[in-house]
Amino acid sequence: MSNALIIMLAVMGGTMLLRAPISFGMLAGGVAYLIAKGQDIGLMAEQVLNGLYNSYVLLAVPLFILAASIMNAGAISERLFAMAIALVGHFRGGLAYVNVIVSVIFSGMSGSAIADAAGPGLVSIRMMTDKNRFTPEFAGALTACSSTIGPIIPPSIPLVIYALVSGSSVGALFLAGVIPGFIMALSLMIGIYILARIHNFPREERPKMADIPRIVAQGFLPLTLPIVLLGGIYTGVFTPTEAAAVAAMHAIILTLYYRSLSWQRMWHVLQESLRQSASVTLIVASAFIMNYAIAAEQIPDLVAHWFTQHEFSKIEFLLLINVIFLILGCLLDTSTMLLVLVPLLIPAAKLLGVDLVHFGVVVVVNMMIGLVTPPFGMLLFVINALTGTSLKGMIRQSLPFMILLIIALLVMTLFPQTVLWLPQSMGYVTQ
Predict the structure, then answer these.
(1) pLDDT tens for each residue of 345-392
(2) Domain hosting residue 104, numbered range
(3) Is 98 within a domain?
(4) Is 18 inside any structural domain?
(5) Are 231 and 155 in contact (CB under 8 A)?
(6) What angle do CA 4, 10, 12 make, to 5 degrees?
(7) In this predicted structure, what is the pLDDT of residue 225?
(8) In angstroms, rounded to a whole number, what is the distance separating the alpha carbons of residues 28 and 172?
(9) Which of 122, 128, 129 is nearest to 147 (CA)?
(10) Which one of 2, 74, 214, 337 is most buried, counting C-beta atoms within 10 A?
(11) CA-based Rg of the chain, rounded to a whole angstrom?
């Protein structure tokens, strides 16, 4: 490790300790590296601009963010909640099941865990805590854990970014996330079933049979978005990047159809989407200069050599990666791991013959679990900020669900076909 790299890491760590945005820390570290190496600082602009303008797939990110913002701002979530309550609300702990089902549905629209937690997740918490049905801590913990499904079932912003750094097919990654997302949802529902029996969770009143078709019909249109996206990608009607524009247009059409969003509110949604997109793009841009420094130091080759020298098998490699990312998820931001650490491991995965689509889904699931892992636990912090619910109480209540999510992660790791079967059956070459 050269002195220049040590300086870069020290500058980056120092800015993080000062609580500066992670993107500023990476940019500052990149500048420090170039200065220490005696290279032209203008190289940073070249790396950033070339990286951004050559990354067509990156266009999908702001469009998926826009689609999620519109879906959350309109009346779509209320219709989906009514449909979910009509279907499963009468079971013991019915609203907890509704929480998970709505997260699954919205995962096919937003691609962002934070968007799911701050949008439909907030509605779930209010419904669950109304009339003291559930404690705020349990409702917040379940919402945080169910929101992790959002970036797994397509569309997925983290999988788009992973495709950017790995060169994998976005379409294959989207299809690969479907079954793992349902495995995660099933694991959470198993936890709800057990806890409902132990704590005697309440049931909701069963709706009249005559009302169910009407309620389901009102919530049906939003359910067509995942079908349109995956169908269009698979049939070749549009590319995965173009699918993001279709998702945004689909959200706008639904909002106009339901007449649920005023033009003034739409303007605020566009502004918020612009801010979020700028934040993500700045992180991606700053990662390009970091990755330039890491590549110049030949660190990916050293990491790959270390793994091959110790003769790890594919499964041993993936299990070790799980442990590493579950630990790092307690400390680091998802974007840092995805844009800086994952590129270090991709050469090793290739040398060991690990399928990059399988690797990508496993890594992203790891990162999503990290979003509810203390002390970082971004989803827990978001819910705490929005509702004022005790952070300590949510951490305690989330432990059973986190254990179940880790078990689901192990299933995906040990049985690669749970990830690869769908994209391979659709004709994608994933190896």
Answers:
(1) 998 898 888 999 999 999 999 989 988 887 667 788 888 877 888 888
(2) 40-425
(3) yes
(4) no
(5) no
(6) 105
(7) 76
(8) 35
(9) 122
(10) 74
(11) 22
3-state DSSP call for residue 344?
Answer: helix
- Max Cα–Cα distance, the chain, nearest Å: 75
Cβ–Cβ contacts within 10 Å for residue 298, how many? 10
Reading phi first (left if > 0) and then psi (alpha if -120 to 50, else beta), residue 207 is in beta
* Alpha-carbon gap, residue 184 to 191, rounded angstroms: 11
| pLDDT per position as a tens digit, 87-121 | 888 888 888 999 898 888 877 666 677 777 777 78
> How many residues in the chain?
431
Distance from C-alpha of 356 to C-alpha of 383, rounded to nearest angstrom: 33
Please classify residue 78 by burial: count the beta carbons closer than 10 Å to its beta carbon, then call 0-12 exposed, 13-18 middle and 19+ buried. middle
Residue ranges of alpha helices (H) inside 154-262 are 157-166, 170-176, 178-199, 212-218, 220-235, 240-258
pLDDT digits (tens, 9 = 90+) for 154-206: 888 889 889 888 888 888 998 899 999 999 999 999 999 999 999 888 888 77
In 3D space, the residue among 224, 217, 226 whose CA is nearest the CA of residue 110 turns out to be 226
CA 371/CA 332 separation, integer angstroms:
10
Nearest partner of 142 among 103, 198, 107, 181, judged by Cα: 103
Query: What letter would DSSP give residue 377?
Result: -
d(CA 72, CA 81): 12
CA 159 to chain centroid? 8
Give the pTM. 0.83
Residue 50 lies in a domain: yes
Element (H, E) at 363: helix 356-370
Helix (H, G, I), strand (E, B) or coil at 325: helix
Kindly give, in sequence order, each residue whose CB lies less than 8 Å from that of residue 144, ignoring residues fewer than 6 positions away: 117, 121, 371, 372, 377, 379, 380, 382, 383, 394, 398
Residue type, 282: L
- Contact between 180 and 405 (Cβ < 8 Å): no
Query: Is the distance from CB of 91 to CB of 200 less than 8 angstroms?
Result: no
Q: Report how far residue 181's alpha carbon sits from residue 98's, in angstroms, rounded to the nearest whole number.
A: 16
Report the domain count for the chain.
Answer: 1
d(C-alpha 326, C-alpha 344), whole Å: 17
| C-alpha span between 162 and 165 (Å, rounded) | 5
Q: How many CB atoms lie within 10 A of CB 112?
A: 28
User: What are the CB-based long-range contacts (under 8 Å, 24+) for 38-47?
Assistant: 43/292, 44/289, 47/288, 47/289, 47/292
Does some domain include residue 21?
no
Q: How far is CA 141 from the centre of its chain?
A: 17
Per-residue pLDDT at 76: 72
